[in-house]
Amino acid sequence: MKKIFITGFCIASLFFLSSINSARKERSHSLDDIPFTLYNLDVSKCTGFQHHTGSKVFIPQEALLFKNNKPCNTKITFSYRELRTPSEIITADITMKYFEGKLRKDLVTSGMFEVYAICEKETLALKPGKTINVFFAVENVETKTIAYRYDFTNSVWNNYNSPVADLSATSMYSDSVNQLWGSSPVPSLNDSSQIRGEDGEEYDIESGRRWEYENALKNNAFKSLEIDSFGLYNYDYILDKENYVPIVADFKILNQKAPLTRMVYVVYPHINSVLYFSPYEWKTGFSILPVEGVKIFSIMDNGNVAMLPSTDLTEQSVKSWKMKSHTFLLVENITLVQNSRQLASVTGIDQIVKK
Q: 3-state DSSP: the chain helix, strand, coil percent, rounded to 5?
């Protein structure tokens, strides 16, 4: 296991200040974006914060620069969010595409995090040679994942050449933690040390163990990653498409004459991913697995969801469409969808990926 080197860390008070949206190119739907949580930190000393999911982010001392290379040692606003479910991935409008040369692959995620730092309204960078350590909390460790970084310009993932370390929650607080961190013993926090939760209440670190956020998180595991720049990162493996059936597809809305021109999304049972298919890919780049329970849908201009009825897709029917033309008739749901929670409720996509 790779050793993680930090010269020591201090815990600052955490403040839930507000939510922000990153600047993005035109989105493929009108859903409200997944908000960021903001944390104010003094980076003149080593510091860090814990997200409400249990994930931990550690920032070394004086690690940040203005774009003009001036140091910034005042309080910094860190914006941080996580994307864990298909509904959040779609709402944030993040594709799962990865290319090996010209060959398209799709990724399966164990979770994503996105982080930025801002000082005096200016987006900051990390100093050369400095890294931020992210301990991403997961319920179960998927050992075959590697790290990827998102390219917002091309809407694809690229390999991020930094090892992912899988850690149990108990190892974070065991006698072997010194070897794990590769530093001197992490000092105990005294009784006066406080941490502020998102509910605004203060908790004594030593007695309340608020750093672990909830007792349930003690049984979680962590995926550790060192990052040398801000952005969106992913713990993924490549989806096996050996049994996929290629189809010359078209998509229409039942009882509507106007052609569908929106993105089509595909979500499979027990696979935490979303496959995006734009209209130009339907004829030559569309394929699906011949399994039961697949969710195929599109988000309309008016905010409604148009879904393929579950009865229209069987293992046998998919196999019979191999290399043939087939039109999928989606049925528009009259329930307005405005955010990830509503999308999950209408489509059921988050529920089917749970193992």
A: 15, 35, 50
